Amino acid sequence: MHAIKLAIRVLKENWFWLKWLVALSFLAYLFYAYRVQLANLLARRPDWTQFSLAVLVVAASITLTFYRWYLLVWAQDFPFTVKDALRLSFIGYACNFIGPGAAGGDLIKAGLIATEQTSRKGIAAATVLLDRILGVLALFMVGAFSMFFQPPALLAHPVVKTYLAVLWIGTVGGAVGLLVVLHPAVPRSGAMRRLVRLPKVGPMIAGLVNAVLLYQSRRRVLVFCVIISIVGHFGMLSGFYFCSRAVQAGAAAPGYWGHLLLIPGAEVGAVFIPVPAGLGAFEGLVARSYQVANEAAGMPVPAAAAEGAGVATALAYRVVSMLIAAVGGAYYFAARSEIDRALKRGRDEQGGDTVPAVSLQN
Prior knowledge:
The chain is mostly helical. It is 75% helix and 0% strand. It is built from 16 helices and no strands.
């Protein structure tokens, strides 16, 4: 037991470096396992026109999702501008390569907006979580919608059958949850009133309830945010398809609609693997997605060729992401001292949340 406790403590103390070791080990394994297939793809030379299209489409789509977050913060009556949203979002996007999982930058973004607001800091940070939830919901919606454009053989694959069930459960469950939250009776219910009166946690719950009431008074903003999310994910997944064409994967890659169906699963799966930006894990999941599509199509190419094409496409998309993250890196290093002070101030401050002036009365 002492040895286990010591190992856990060492792991916690050194996880910042160990997570990179784990991620690079994943990536090194993929490079080694598919070295022949990657070399063959590299010999064909990349299609730079398709790669440029991927960069433009993905950059525009990601910027659109940054605007979605701005709307969510604006709807809460915070002093916040589009420029602020772009600045913090680009920093958070760049920090995805630092934090655990593919969404680690959200923690940095939430901390920054909380320290920059003078009141309701918890609500300000919670907008980042809501933004992520809407993004995942839209990702599920795009994947589920693409089902109607797939060949029957792909839909009949056992893995895809299970995956589709998850997609539709997430889509329907998320949509129902959003409708419930937007129902006027929920924040004004007797159960919610009792929760608001609880000691210690009551004020925090009251703040969240009032935040929901503000969103309810601006339902069109939330609906517009969902639409933005759907358009943004169509764009990012289209960029992934352009990456497959850029590496000239050919028959080893699924078609356009196949990417829209399968890649959301790889993106969501990478979020839950605690390595920076899902490095290595995302590439492995994409390789598996390509092989599933290859199996459903009757194995037009060997399994290793399909998986190697998946790794190559994911790496090309990774390069696209890093080019966009470079903008966030420039923001970060230009204001690094300011960001460090903001984060330190946030840790030192006590409390800071106040309940917004929205009545809970009918």
